[in-house]
Amino acid sequence: MSFEGECLQLTSTPRKTKKFFQKNAKLNENFPKMLDDICCSPIQKRQEISDISIYNSSFEEQIVKTKSRKPATKKHSSILLKKAIKDISLSMKERNNCRQFCLRHVTTTMMQNMRYRFWTKSFENRVEWFIDKVKERKHQRFIIDEGHKVCASCFRLLLKINRNFYYKYLNKALEGKSTASYRNARGIGMAREGAIAWLQTYQYFHADRMPDNGDMMLPFKTRKSDLYETYVAEKIQLLETSIKAAYTVSRAAFYEIWKTDFPKLKIKQTNSFSKCCTCVHIERELEKTRDPVKREKLKQMMSVHNKRQMTERRYYYKKRDLARSNPGHFMSIIIDGMDQSKTNLPHFTGRLMKGVDPNSFLKTHIQGVLNHGLDSLDLYVDINEYMHDANLVMNIILKSTYKALLKNGFLQSTLYIQADNCARENKNKFVLGFCELLVRLDIFQEVHLSFLHVGHTHEDIDASFSQLSMKLRKADAETMPQLLSLLNGANQLRGLFDIKAWLEPCLNNIKKHSKPLHFKFSKDVTQKTVMQYRANSNRPWNFTDEAILHSIPSGQPRLLLPPNFHKIEISAIRKNIEKQQYNFSGDGQYNWWLQYLDYLQLVKNNKDTMIDYAKRGAEWLIPILMNKQKPSENSNADIDGHLFEMLDRELDDHEVVLSKAKPKKSKKNPEN
To answer: Residue ranges of the DUF7869 domain (predicted)?
Structure first.
C-alpha cells in the first residue's frame, strides 16, 4: 500500500490527511520513516497504534495547534506592513516612470513578497539589511531577487522606503558603519500621556472600588462617548494656560487606552448599589428626551453634581493625608461594614456541594476601621447576634481608639471620622452625641464626623475588603478561628455596652440633621462645647444654638445582651455541617462545629450563659481614654511677649476713614 493509502487508514477522512500534509511539510518528510518503525513493530503494538480513535485524536490535536499559530510580529511592524502593501497597485503604475525600466520584470506578487520580508523585520534588522544592500551595489545599482539590478529610485519604490531613511543610512553605510546606532525609543505622546493622567484622576474621584474583586466601577448607565466628550471639553479649557496641555487623543485611541491601561475600570451593568437621587433623576430625564438642547443641559447638571461629590472626596483625602503627614496631632479613621456570603462559615473555595442550602451557613458580618495615620485595619467579626446600629458603631470606635492609644502611647488632639451615609448606623443623634461626649470628657479637643454623598461612598476601606475577598477565594476557612486568622488576626466582637440607652436621657431634641455632610465638635474660648455643621466642605461652618448634650451621663452603660440570637437557625446549620462532614480537612474541624453549635444552643436558651457570653472582652474604655492627649510643647517660655503682640496686630481689622475734602484757598501771587 502507498504512503498516502496508509495515512488514509490512520486518519478519519482523506480530507484531513491531505490538509494535514499540506500544513506540516516537515512531518510529511519524516512520516514514511515513522510508518516503517510502526510496520516493523510487533503485531500487537501495531494494532494498538493503528487504532483509529487513538491516532485520530493525536492528528486532530496537531491540526488544531497548527491552526492556532500566528506569526509573532510586533504591532508597529504590522501597521507599517499594511501601509506598505496598501498602495502596491499604485506603485506598479509608477514603475514605468523610470527611463531605464528597472522594474519591468517585477510582478505584483514579487513586490508584495519583498515588502513583506522587509517590513516584518525589526528596525535594527531593516537597517542592517539595507546597509548590506548598499555595500553589494555595483555601479550605483542595487541587486534584488534573481540578480536583477535596479536604480536607487526604483529600489526605494520597490520596498516603499522614504527619503529620510534612505539617505540617513546610505551615508552611514558609506562611512563604514554596519549596524544601526542607538535609537531613542519613541516615548508616549504628550496627548496620550495626558489622556492616561485624566483617566487616572477620573477613576480616582468617580469610580467605586468593589470590595470583592477590586474592580473600579463607574456609575450605572455611564457612557464611554460621554466620558470622551467630557475629556475633550476639559482639555479645551486648558488652552488658556498651555497649548500642549490641551492636546487630545482621538476617540479610538481613548477607548484603546481605557482597555489596555485601565482594565479594572468598568461600568456597572446593573444598579446593584444604592444610588443618589440626583443621579437617578437626571439619568431618567436623559432617557426620556431626544432634544439636543435639553440633553446638553442635563449633562451639564450631571457634571456639576459629579464635581460636587468629587470635591467632598478631595476633602476626605485632605484629612486623610493630614493624619499621615502629622500623626502627632491628627487621627483619621474610616469605618464601614462588609456583608458578603464569602465570609459565611464554613467557607470552602470553589462551588457548593450539590444539595447544600446556601442559607444554612453561619452568617457573619465584618466591621472594619481603617486608621490612616497608623496604616492599620482593625476588623471585628460577629455572627449577626448584635443589631448593626449606632451601638455597634460607637463601641467599635472606642475599641479602635483604645488600640491606637496602646500603639502610640497618646491620643491626638483632633479626630476625623469618615462614615457611611446611613441613618441607622452613623447619621443619628446617638453618634452625634457620642462625638460631643468625646470632646466634653477631654478625650479629643476636636471631633469631625463627615459623610460622602449617598451612592458615592465606596472608598479606600473597600480596597482593603477587596484584598480580604481575594484571600477567601484561595483559602478555606472551615471554622471561626481559621476565619479570624485568615483576616489578619481579626477579633470576634464581644463585650458591647448599651451606649444608646446611656446617652438618650442626656440628649437634646435634634431635627434636620440628615442633610449636612459635616459635623464638628470643639470647645470655645470659655471651654464650652459647641456643635457646628455645614452642608458641604465649601460652605462656612454654622453654629447651633444648643449643644446636643444638655448634661454628661453618669456612671457607665449597662452590658448589651445580644438581641438577635433567636434569628440564628442552629438546627439548619447543624444539618449543613453533617452533610459536609467529609469536606472538612480533618475530624478536628467537624468536632469543633459540633461543640460550637451546642454552645450556641446553650447561649440561646440559658440567660446566665448569654450574660457570660456578652461579658467576654467587656471593658468600659471611656475612663481609660480620658486626658491621654499628647502634651503640647511649651516652646513659648523664653520668647518675649511683645513679639506675640506684634503677630496679633497683623490680624487686626483696621478701619479706613474717608471724609470730604475741603476746598483749598488759592494763594495770590504777590505783585513784584
So the answer is: 356-537
pLDDT (tens digit, 9 = 90+) per residue, 607-648? Answer: 999 999 999 989 999 999 998 887 665 544 455 666 666 766
Query: How crowded is residue 10: how many other Cβ atoms within 10 Å of its Cβ?
Result: 20
| C-alpha dihedral (317, 318, 319, 322), degrees to nearest 10 | 120
Specify which residues 410 forms β-bridges with: none
| pLDDT, position 547 | 93
Cα–Cα distance between 133 and 127 in angstroms, integer?
A: 10
pLDDT at 664: 66
Q: Which one, of 599, 616, 603, 612, lies nearest residue 493 by Cα?
A: 616
- Taking the C-alpha atoms of residue 589 and residue 203, their distance in angstroms, rounded to an integer, is 44
Helix or strand run (H / E) with residue 193 = helix 190-206
Strand partners, 534: 518
Residue 331: what are its φ and ψ, rounded to 5°? -120, 130
Angle among Cα 41, 44, 49 to the nearest 5 degrees reads 70
DSSP single-letter state for residue 362: B
Name beta bridge partners: 71: none
H-helix or E-strand containing 59? helix 52-68
Q: Residue 420 is placed in which grid cell?
A: 457611611
Write the burial class of residue 23 (CB in 10 Å: 0-12 exposed, 13-18 middle, 19+ buried): middle
Q: Which domain holds residue 305?
A: 190-311
Helix (H) or strand (E) holding 15: helix 14-23
d(CA 475, CA 490): 16
Using a 10 angstrom Cβ sphere, with 0-12 exposed, 13-18 middle and 19 or more buried, the burial of residue 251 is middle
Residues 582 and 615 in one domain: yes
Report the distance separating Cα 336 and Cα 369, nearest Å.
7
Q: Are residues 151 and 251 in the same domain?
A: no
What residue type is 230 in one-letter code? T
> Terminus-to-terminus CA distance in the chain, angstroms?
149
Distance separating alpha carbons of residues 242 and 478, to the nearest angstrom? 60
The whole-number pLDDT of residue 282 equals 82
Query: Could you tell me how far CA 478 lies from the centroid of its own chain?
Result: 30
As a whole number of angstroms, the distance between CA 504 and CA 596 comes to: 36
Handedness of CA 277, 282, 287, 288 (dihedral sign): positive
Contacts (Cβ under 8 Å, ≥6 apart) of 23 = 63, 66
- Of the residues 260, 276, 311, the one at which a domain ends: 311
Q: Which of 163, 169, 139, 165 is nearest to 151 (CA)?
A: 139
Average pLDDT over residues 445-463: 84
A 10 A CB-CB count for 593 gives 24
Of 68, 83, 114, the residue that ends a domain is 68
Q: Do 134 and 213 sit in the same domain of this protein?
A: no
Q: Among positive and negative, which fits the CA dihedral 6, 10, 16, 21? A: negative
Tell me if 24 is assigned to some domain.
yes
Side-chain-side CA neighbours of residue 38 (13 Å): 17
Please state, in angstroms and rounded to a whole number, the distance separating the CA atoms of residues 557 and 506.
13
Amino acid type, 244: K
